[in-house]
Automatic annotation (TrEMBL):
<feature type="domain" description="Rhodanese">
    <location>
        <begin position="40"/>
        <end position="130"/>
    </location>
</feature>
<dbReference type="InterPro" id="IPR001307">
    <property type="entry name" value="Thiosulphate_STrfase_CS"/>
</dbReference>
<protein>
    <submittedName>
        <fullName>Sulfurtransferase</fullName>
    </submittedName>
</protein>
<dbReference type="GO" id="GO:0004792">
    <property type="term" value="F:thiosulfate-cyanide sulfurtransferase activity"/>
</dbReference>
<dbReference type="Pfam" id="PF00581">
    <property type="entry name" value="Rhodanese"/>
</dbReference>
<dbReference type="InterPro" id="IPR050229">
    <property type="entry name" value="GlpE_sulfurtransferase"/>
</dbReference>
<keyword id="KW-0808">Transferase</keyword>
<dbReference type="InterPro" id="IPR001763">
    <property type="entry name" value="Rhodanese-like_dom"/>
</dbReference>
<dbReference type="InterPro" id="IPR036873">
    <property type="entry name" value="Rhodanese-like_dom_sf"/>
</dbReference>
Length: 136
């Protein structure tokens, strides 16, 4: 009798590779975002989709605040059509980033979700920024 882990057989390697390649096309993680900013290779726009008040209190350095409800075709036309947007919200308990990614995709824009959001960023031990800090 197999363990609960092996009870359902693992996917064949080629199917597993296809699955994870597809998954990585939709998401990135806090560590990769941090590494991009630390290495000065930022080839995406990082959007914090929480409220302006929460953004002012604390946010990921380099992020722009743009709640998903304000993502209109007119507003998004400020960026080139081939811009990659990375979106995040409070954390895994929040679907604001999913709503933002959906809205951006419906507008024909490329997007990835930063898994973990603010919670993931904190779990990694990365520093936050506040509106007061950004103004200095």
């Amino acid at each position: 009798m197999p363990s609960p882990v092996a009870e359902i057989p693992a996917a064949e390697p080629d199917l597993a590779a296809a699955h994870y390649a597809a998954k990585l096309a939709f998401e990135t993680d806090c560590s990769d975002v941090h590494a991009a900013f630390a290495g000065a290779k930022v080839d995406f726009v990082l959007l914090d989709v929480r409220s302006a008040a929460l953004f002012a209190q604390s946010h990921v350095p380099g992020a722009i605040n743009l709640p998903h409800g304000k993502m209109t075709a007119h507003r998004m036309s400020e960026w080139a059509r081939d811009t990659l947007f990375v979106v995040y919200c409070a954390g895994p308990h929040c679907n604001g980033a999913d709503k933002a990614a959906f809205r951006l995709a419906k507008l024909g824009l490329r997007t990835k979700l930063m898994i973990g959001g603010m919670t993931g960023w904190a779990d990694e031990g990365f520093a936050f920024e506040s509106a007061a800090m950004a103004a200095e």
